[in-house]
Design brief:
- By secondary structure, the chain is α/β, with parallel strands linked by helices.
- Helices cover 16% and strands 25% of the residues.
- The structure holds zinc ion.
- Zinc ion (ZN) binds next to strand 4.
Length: 224
């Protein structure tokens, strides 16, 4: 029993969404330069690396990540769902409609596309699979215990299908009396080395920065 991370360490070479500035992590004060201490300057967009999207990312009155209570970031019934997908493919209703989600509170979609994260980051960023809007709608409507979705791709939006990606995000975040609570979305997850049967719980630890919609995060998994 112990903890593992399902998130990547952020580096200057981390693949980040094509529309974002690349992370800059620069050594500022340096002991080797005669300073008494080391410090770094960190300049990153808040959707860089493994990060958690909150409703404020897409909706004006949506809850922002810094307003979440820690209790809302702990998931005791996580479920990994293996749905292998190749370039530009979407997870569709027929992929999930027959699955047994039990009472999962967090669904992690493992497409296998993370194999390109380090080896072919251009492909990882421009040909990523995504989640279709209908799948998110289905989850909001039928699986009301679910509070979070994660994926091992740079975004739940397929880069080549931006319109459908926006719709999928909106379906995750919109408030409706027919739906469960708006979802959190964890993007750019590292899911390769975890087995479903070992997974006990998940904790999202976003950067603690007041007022931002979404944040880079560490995802801790408690495993058997
Ligand atoms: Zn994002």
């Amino acid at each position: 029993m112990g903890y593992i991370t399902l998130s990547y360490m952020l580096e200057e070479i981390s693949p980040v969404h094509m529309g974002l500035k690349k992370p800059e992590i620069t050594h500022n004060n340096q002991i080797v330069d005669g300073k008494g201490y080391n410090t770094y300057l960190i300049n990153v967009e808040n959707h860089s690396g493994t990060h958690v999207d909150a409703p404020g990312h897409f909706t004006e009155d949506g809850k922002i990540i810094s307003d979440y209570h820690p209790d809302e970031l702990v998931f005791n019934k996580p479920l990994i769902v293996d749905i292998p997908k190749g370039s530009n493919e979407l997870i569709k209703i027929w992929n999930i409609s027959k699955l047994d989600f039990n009472d999962a509170d967090c669904i992690l979609f493992r497409t296998g596309f993370e194999k390109f994260h380090s080896d072919d980051s251009e492909k990882y960023l421009t040909q990523n699979p995504g989640i279709s809007p209908e799948v998110v709608y289905f989850i909001r409507k039928n699986l009301k215990n679910v509070r979070c979705i994660g994926i091992d791709c740079v975004s739940i939006s397929s880069y080549q299908n931006p319109g459908l990606g926006e719709e999928a995000h909106s379906n995750a975040f919109v408030k409706s009396k027919d739906f469960g609570k708006p979802l959190l979305l964890i993007e750019d997850m590292k899911l390769r080395n975890v087995k479903n049967e070992d997974l006990e719980s998940i904790i999202i630890v976003p950067w603690q920065i007041k007022g931002i919609d979404s944040a880079p995060c560490t995802v801790l998994a408690k495993v058997k």
